[in-house]
Amino acid sequence: MHFDKLVDLHCHILPGIDDGSESLEKSLALAQAAIADGVTHILATPHHLDNQYVNHKADVIKLCDQFQAELDRQKLPLSVFAGQEVHINGDLIEKYDDLLGIDEDKHYMLLEFPHGEVPAYAKRMIFDLRKKGTTPVICHPERNHEIQENLDLLYEFIENGALAQLTATSYIGGFGEHVAELSHKMVEHNLVQIIASDAHNLPGRKFVLSEALNQVAQDFDAAKAQAFEANAEKLINGDYVAAHDYSPIPMKKKKKFFFF
Ligand SMILES: [Fe+2]
């Protein structure tokens, strides 16, 4: 299937600020790969507060603007927006003003758990963020060891108002059969609402978003794949996304970003 627009809400395309792209040259190569995959709009989401990387809101916005200017100069048809992959911490509420949402008004935010576990305070933090008006979108739950062991944990987060993002590579088997099976199960049970690349570098962690969406269309139906894409658009526009509603909803005429 073909998408006129393809929105990728998780990637490490900005140069030199985390374990993603190391240089402007590599970022441009990633951009070209994204375009080749059909991606038209991308949310740059460097790691933030994960013990290794701190990427303040203002710095990400500035770098993102510079990168967009370079893309425009090179006539690469890709729109880049500033975001963060926010690692869960006990003091996120105190740091709230320095956090970037998926959308401009921070109705949604990418929230990363440690790979090994789900912190005991995660449920409380999701509640606190929602109280601030932000719905957390849990990054790649299929790669979290505790959720892998017990999918009910993810079910509960979704029931409590969070959303979740599946990584395209996981779905098509790039992290092994077990992760692929879990990813399939999450899609089947509507435990994830978007699929994103989480691209870091080439050729290792690349763009396979179209491939994953096509695989979803093949495994389930085209409507489900379209719903994932539509949800990504809704999130970047700050529009409502229902956790369990995967029937495609017609796009509004006027959106916050003029691209849509
Ligand atoms: Fe990431």
From TrEMBL:
<keyword id="KW-0904">Protein phosphatase</keyword>
<dbReference type="InterPro" id="IPR016667">
    <property type="entry name" value="Caps_polysacc_synth_CpsB/CapC"/>
</dbReference>
<protein>
    <recommendedName>
        <fullName>Tyrosine-protein phosphatase</fullName>
        <ecNumber>3.1.3.48</ecNumber>
    </recommendedName>
</protein>
<comment type="similarity">
    <text>Belongs to the metallo-dependent hydrolases superfamily. CpsB/CapC family.</text>
</comment>
<keyword id="KW-0378">Hydrolase</keyword>
<dbReference type="Pfam" id="PF19567">
    <property type="entry name" value="CpsB_CapC"/>
</dbReference>
<dbReference type="InterPro" id="IPR016195">
    <property type="entry name" value="Pol/histidinol_Pase-like"/>
</dbReference>
